[in-house]
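Quick note —
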Amino acid sequence: MRYLYWRGNSLWSRFPVAGKPPAYPLKIRTTGSPTDKARCERLGERMLAEIRTGRFFDKFESTAPYRPKYWRLVARFWYHEFKFLQCAYSEWHHIVWSLREFGKKFYDEINVEDVRKWINAMKEVGVKTNCINKRLYYLGRVYRHAGKETDKRFLLNYNPSKDVKKLKGDTERTDLLTPEMFERNYEALLSINDEFAFYYLLLWETGRRPLEVALYRLEYLNWERQEINVPASISKTKDAETIPLSKRAWGQITLRHRPGDTGLISKTSTGTPWLYYADTKRKSLVNNSKRWMKKLRKVVGKTGWMRDTRGGFVTEMCQAKIDLCVVGDLSGHKDLRSVKRYDKRPLNRLHTAIDERPQPPAQKQQPEGKILEFRRKAV
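Predicted structure written out below.
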């Protein structure tokens, strides 16, 4: 009874084990009679021997299967994929929609029909096809991450979005940002906000994603080679890249900065980076680029979106007959299929082919007033 003691009618153990509390409730209850008390003490000695060998704690380990809720899958996905990236603001904007819809449900309670109802509900309220596809993509990506967990305790083989196909737009978008439209927008922005106009110019001249360009710092500049050495932490593809700058973009940078300066290349009046997605609680953020695009739209009318600068850059490169691999390296597209979406050369070739197809020979015109007689052949 050195390590066993009674607490009321229950027998407890005080055998010291590292990482465990100083006392263990063995929960061996007695009626109080001497015979039953001796029986409990003998049983307690056997349990104490199991404590010394470690087998006692195996009985208290949870044997319930791992069945998390969807928000836990999102948490693990975010920690492993985007926690250490500085450019994941737009990704979180799309993930949070599935989190609001399915966050409190267990992961296996979400089925294909629930995903399709969610998609139909977004279509009814007027959400654009591209946004719906992105939200569906990140829903599937969360589940695919759970299916690739290195820790087998968290490994799950389930994905409700696997059999849900992404939506296709009713029409193909042809109103891309042209150089003429960009110059018109840029001249108007110079009178509205000079710093935002500089940021808009960098988007057009680099063809990069708006959030990545907003995070470019002066420390990344190579002043001798006129290029930006982008670290992997702010790249969506998680790859370190080198971006050459055009003469126009480099001239604007040298007008505003000098070698040895630190901070963001393009920043707001408060020194913060330009962000596109507005905070619903603070809609008057000075660094909300969407706000300035709305002001531009009031001045010049149809302007396009911030990301249209990227599509316009790729389209103009393709129209200049530059190799698609080179265009993908400049714009940062990892998959050439994304570059081909902006390549309008196949459409131009179709127009040329339809005009150059062989034409039927011209028929002779009959003189006016002459009646043609058609005789039926004798059978």
